[in-house]
Specification:
By secondary structure, the chain is mainly α. Helix content is 65%, strand content 3%.
């Protein structure tokens, strides 16, 4: 004789399923309604409709960044198809949507600040290993040309004439 599902027979079944659909954890729902985690998990797996289970899984696994990246991928596919078929109007629409999707991704990831503000990172090239290697190779390559080597060394060691402000820059959209 098959075991009876305690979640199915619970008077709180509608509330349990609503909690699961809202994205609450199986463990948390089980604790709240006095059921075992196994019972709620088995109920969800075997007795909740596939459509309802799909909603829950989508909510649990897809973050805003995931959804923005998927949207960007789909938009890029539409843009490529529009280009290949010579549909300029559709391509332009896809470009506009792509721009907005990239802006959404930037906001969600923290790379873009609200109202178009971008944080500027200042890199100290004098201490950067790649810069030091390039500088050394350049000066070695100019060894046969003493005047050019001296001019390059002077330019590379000179203080920068352009300074970068620590203020944030505003992007115009």
């Amino acid at each position: 004789m098959a075991a009876v599902c305690r979640t199915c027979t619970s008077p709180d079944r509608p509330a349990i399923e609503a909690a699961l659909v809202s994205g609450q954890s199986i463990r948390g729902v089980a604790l709240r309604y006095g059921l075992s985690k196994g019972s709620v998990s088995a109920h969800f797996k075997h007795h909740v409709s596939p459509a309802l289970a799909g909603i829950v899984e989508t909510k649990r696994t897809r973050t805003l960044i995931d959804r923005a990246e998927q949207l960007i991928g789909e938009t890029e596919s539409i843009l490529q198809a529009a280009k290949e078929s010579g549909r300029a109007q559709l391509a332009l629409s896809a470009i506009r949507e792509l721009r907005e999707s990239i802006k959404l991704l930037g906001l969600a990831s923290g790379e873009l600040r609200p109202e178009g503000q971008v944080q500027i990172a200042v890199v100290n090239l004098v201490e950067n290993q790649e810069y030091l290697q390039v500088k050394e190779r350049l000066l070695l390559a100019l060894a046969a040309f003493p005047e050019a080597r001296a001019a390059a060394a002077t330019a590379l060691l000179a203080e920068p004439t352009v300074t970068v402000s620590s203020r944030q820059a505003n992007l115009r959209s």
